[in-house]
Specification:
The complex is a heterodimer. Helices cover about 0% and strands about 55% of the residues of chain A. By secondary structure, chain A is mostly beta strands. The radius of gyration of chain A is 13 Å and the shape is globular. Chain B is mainly beta. Chain B has a single domain, classed as Immunoglobulins (Immunoglobulin-like), CATH 2.60.40.10. Chain B has no helices and 11 strands. In chain B, a hairpin with a 5-residue loop joins strand 4 and strand 5. The mean pLDDT of chain B is about 95. The chains are: A mainly beta, B mainly beta. Chains A and B meet through strand 4, strand 5, strand 9 and strand 10 of A and strand 4, strand 5, strand 9 and strand 10 of B.
């Protein structure tokens, strides 16, 4: 698999439910970041988790990182219709500073 | 809240023409980036720029591409002779530290006919 593959590719839930998205990567990372992209718009940074961290919270977002399994998950609790967007994981590896993006999960939150 | 801005929002050009995409990064940021996203595909890294020089570039960023920071505020991406496959959304981003959070602009949609 490529650096940064996400599943599911698409997720449809009802407002108020939790949404979980997963990301797997191949090479060791310095940090892993999650971004949101509303249709046809720019990317918005959500949260960054470093390779020596296991869990991080920000508001309704919870991110976990398992470096032994080379995977991360993003949990959005109590989802809202406004959370409808595409969510991407992106990693920083080695001594560089470029982001390598995953394939993304399209989340649809229905009323 | 400061934000990255990009102009134009949409550029249509003929194959073989030169285009310049413009970005104004957040003012106290030191690291600058260009990415692109072909419709329906992943966001791909093109180039990073720090201390007035390219710090990293991808295989996509060949001799047809160049970047410049002509003054203290603008950051431009030039494509010398556009190809049909250059059609994509181009995103500029900036950050305060290498390898940290990056702030993205709204993108320029480039259509090559």
């Amino acid at each position: 698999s490529q650096q940064g593959e996400e599943d599911p590719q698409a997720l449809s839930i009802q407002e108020g439910e939790n949404a979980t998205m997963n990301c797997s990567y191949k090479t060791s990372i310095n940090n892993l970041q999650w971004y949101r992209q509303n249709s046809g718009r720019g990317l918005v940074h959500l949260i960054l988790i470093r390779s020596n961290e296991r869990e991080k919270h920000s508001g309704r977002l919870r991110v976990t990182l398992d470096t032994s399994k080379k995977s991360s998950s993003l949990l959005i609790t109590a989802s809202r219709a406004a959370d409808t967007a595409s969510y991407f994981c992106a990693s920083i590896t080695g001594g560089g500073n470029k982001l390598t993006f995953g394939t993304g999960t399209q989340l649809k939150v229905e009323l | 809240e400061p934000e990255v801005t990009q102009t134009p929002s949409h550029q249509v050009t003929q194959m073989g023409q030169e285009v310049i995409l413009r970005c104004v990064p957040i003012s106290n940021h030191l690291y600058f980036y260009w990415y692109r996203q072909i419709l329906g595909q992943k966001v791909e890294f093109l180039v990073s720029f720090y201390n007035n020089e390219i710090s990293e570039k991808s295989e996509i960023f060949d001799d047809q591409f160049s970047v410049e920071r002509p003054d203290g505020s603008n950051f431009t991406l030039k494509i010398r002779s556009t190809k049909l496959e250059d059609s994509a959304m181009y995103f500029c981003a900036s950050g305060t530290s290498g390898g940290g959070e990056q702030f993205f602009g709204p993108g320029t949609r480039l259509t090559v006919l």
